[in-house]
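Posting this for the archive.
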Amino acid sequence: MTSPYDIEEIFPEDGVRLPRRQHGNSPQGLTVTLLADYTLRNRAWLPSAAIVALLAEAGVSQAGARATISRLARRGVLEGSRQGRNSSYRLTAAAALNLAAGGRWLVAAAADDRPWDRWWTLIAFSLPQEEVARRRELRNRLRWLGCAPLYDGLWISPHDVTAKARSQLADLAGGAMTVFRARHVELGANAGRDPLDAWDTAAIAGHYEAFIRRWSPLLPDIGGSRITGVEAVRARTEVMDTYRRLPILDPRLPLALLPPTWPRERARGLFAAVYDGLAGPAQEHVRAVASRFTTEPLTDVRAHTVADVLRGLQGAEAITEPSR
């Protein structure tokens, strides 16, 4: 079990530069986000018909929703239960643990203000061109770890990688990888590439600014309790599904290397205001929809706040990074 999400929805072509900004979110991503937002704490069951109805409110067709549930079950993200003609689904234990740890990492990453030690992690590897699947899997794992390609076969990160991550990378590379830590040496304006150039910082800032433009106008209505029901769920799911991509695009890049107006903290504060501000009305609506398809109590269907995620859900308090 790796991530319940697919890194290729963020980097569909795995290029050095970021892809064009994506329009809309994938049904699988929306489904995972929806279940994580309201069932993660207790791995609550939801009737499949309720999941389909909630996804329909987000614009996913019934056929598309049912296909999405089936795909997530095959991937080990969801597990099902059937009583007569009625089926229910919940997050698997592995997916729940990963999501809880990933959620904590997500909300903590932007708030991490520890000074950078100015050491880079460099990961060099060489795999045969014909091993397409293994090369893709290795690149995807490097992306999840916050690395980016400086040159072909040389990926970097401004942070160290954990022993577990090093072991996973070594298994994928099959002995064709070297990991080391180093400081950057300036060779002159035209003599080399700046390590920060591995990330398209202008494009990343554009993603942040687009996020801020999209969600800032909602704050007055959230404060005035004017967003309720389906609109609350739709907005809360979308803000999480969009925000969760930003720390992957900007893996705690050192502020010392970035412009003083870098929008990471503004985006994080806005995300928390929207996500937490809509928790109550969104929870009410999810329970109301689910109650149409079951007579079981729905007290385990609960929205959590950013602070709840930071404190840890599903035993994630002992985990500092997701096992991506």
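Residues 13-23, 314-324 have pLDDT under 50 and may be disordered. DSSP finds 13 helices and seven strands in the chain.
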